[in-house]
Hints:
The structure holds three protein chains of three kinds. Chain A has helices spanning 13-31, 35-39, 79-89; strands spanning 42-51, 73-77, 102-114, 121-133, 137-152, 155-164, 169-170. Chain A is of the alpha+beta class. The radius of gyration of chain A is 17 Å and the shape is globular. In chain A, 30% of the residues are buried. Chain C is built from 14 helices and 22 strands. In chain C, strands 13, 14, 15, 16, 17, 18, 19, 20 and 22 form a nine-stranded antiparallel β-sheet that branches. In chain C, helix 2 packs across helix 14 (416-430) and helix 6 packs across helix 14. Chains A and C meet through strand 2, helix 3 and strand 7 of A and strand 7, strand 14, helix 8, strand 20 and helix 11 of C.
Amino acid sequence: xxxxxxxxxxxxxxxxxxxxxxxxxxxxxxxxxxxxxxxxxxxxxxxxxxxxxxxxxxxxxxxxxxxxxxxxxxxxxxxxxxxxxxxxxxxxxxxxxxxxxxxxxxxxxxxxxxxxxxxxxxxxxxxxxxxxxxxxxxxxxxxxxxxxxxxxxxxxxxxxxxxxxxxxxxxxxxxxxxx
Amino acid sequence: xxxxxxxxxxxxxxxxxxxxxxxxxxxxxxxxxxxxxxxxxxxxxxxxxxxxxxxxxxxxxxxxxxxxxxxxxxxxxxxxxxxxxxxxxxxxxxxxxxxxxxxxxxxxxxxxxxx
Amino acid sequence: xxxxxxxxxxxxxxxxxxxxxxxxxxxxxxxxxxxxxxxxxxxxxxxxxxxxxxxxxxxxxxxxxxxxxxxxxxxxxxxxxxxxxxxxxxxxxxxxxxxxxxxxxxxxxxxxxxxxxxxxxxxxxxxxxxxxxxxxxxxxxxxxxxxxxxxxxxxxxxxxxxxxxxxxxxxxxxxxxxxxxxxxxxxxxxxxxxxxxxxxxxxxxxxxxxxxxxxxxxxxxxxxxxxxxxxxxxxxxxxxxxxxxxxxxxxxxxxxxxxxxxxxxxxxxxxxxxxxxxxxxxxxxxxxxxxxxxxxxxxxxxxxxxxxxxxxxxxxxxxxxxxxxxxxxxxxxxxxxxxxxxxxxxxxxxxxxxxxxxxxxxxxxxxxxxxxxxxxxxxxxxxxxxxxxxxxxxxxxxxxxxxxxxxxxxxxxxxxxxxxxxxxxxxxxxxxxxxxxxxxxxxxxxxxxxxxxxxxxxxx
Lengths: 179, 115, 460
């Protein structure tokens, strides 16, 4: 999708395992609706960004090809915003969440690099989100993620996430999960 | 060697191109690139189009119909879909007038055969 | 402009319109959300004849800037011309119909079809082809084969609308006195408005009318559907709309706007006090510009639809078009609108806040999608789709002695706008042409003295 990521120094096997476990755990928490615990994996300075993809020609590329930091986004959140979203999920009056959506999140293609800042990691991965609702609704979408994980009080937490979905038109009515 | 009057040098601003009609040899496009003058055939080699209606980008002329490009000083076809070079004419400047120099017919015939 | 477009032949109206849409008896049937034959009639009698939103002027900066969009199911490109005007063309090559523009926005010298190299300039003229000699040998008249131009295009306060029907009333006539109300969002500050960059596109498996009707006059649902979002964003329930002592539902030609006068009820749900503060700060200048009454509307609990499928929420400043993709599906295009003169950090808060609340990831909109999809899905039942659906709230609320323009009904907890929407819709489905569309409007075409009252009369 011609957003060019950096290839920095790859990490040791132990560090790779540590980050990979965190990603797998993150998805297990989301699949199990353990939202508060998921919030606990986020750095207080989290920037969680999923820009809208705009179908543009190569010669008319936006700041990052298909997306722009100043344009519309599906998520462009800090901690306060993410907490508000979780607050809605936890409301008994979130009618669209009862019966609950059944989520399966898949993460693959994980790469872990040292970031320029010591103690920080650049983690790249691909994902697929499968959501089934009601009797017969199923929504699947996929993409790439570019993360920065950073130390917060002795724990590695997600500090930045850029989520790029290839679709210029979302194939469903909402995204009622995190990715 | 024949010469064809194109225009007065002072009448062609920098970074512009103009068409000069010529029934005998085909219309000619005359260019001013930063004070340096050039001339090429006006009819694009790819499809029916007037290069003089196109835009100049650096030293390239962009054909207005399919946006293929030619290198103005050499006539070389640079950008798709242009593949055949455009004929160029040497320029003579005399007393502020610009002329295109046309080669003798034998040399002309050779170029057409290749085209 | 020379009209080079063929009009769509009008077919006979369906013979059971009064059965599935009976507004005098305040009922509709679910089949209007499901039947393909009704949808085909809509494409012909609504989308090929009405003014449809295509772009905002702020999306174009220079000649050759373009936006690709759809009018109904027709692909069109809107291109800014050298003289600053905008023209719209069908995005299909007149040779074999291939799309000539594959991107959603950008700047171009022109459009070249990828199939046979037909090249069009930004005014839609066919200026060349690949192997042009063949065309010359065939006595081809390129002037007859330019891009098919949408015959009518016009704008209201930056919003560009286009119409396939050259016989349609003007945009001004079509919008009527509703513009008096729309100005509260689209013209409340000097310099007007602009769209935030980009456009969020999504799909929903619902009929376009359900969404359009929701915005035309259904604030009733907010307190129930959106309770969870309100609690998440505001820490408490949605403002109790029935507590407002003054609110209105106004409509004209099927357009509708329902609103309270609490100034910031809508913007408050973005949970950004700076936005509330901004609106309170500009309110006095809005009162000078538009009058006291409208200065109370700039971010109040409200919603609106311009018939057929353009809707917006003042306050959240979300603008959308419900693009029909068959009777059971829409593509939703969502934009965010801000005042050009607003400070950059305020624009940024609107950009984020609007998406946080009303977008496919918006905490409010998430609950709407399910409602609308299942209103559509149950109508697949043959028996279910014939049952009567109630649209009768607020039966005697028409205000006859009011200085307010358009058809004015007391109270925004009201289905008067929904009834007007469906009535206009069924009138169009019955009418073979615009002349045959009845004028059911009863209100003022202009605001009376007290409604238009300004603090400074000269600003008028």
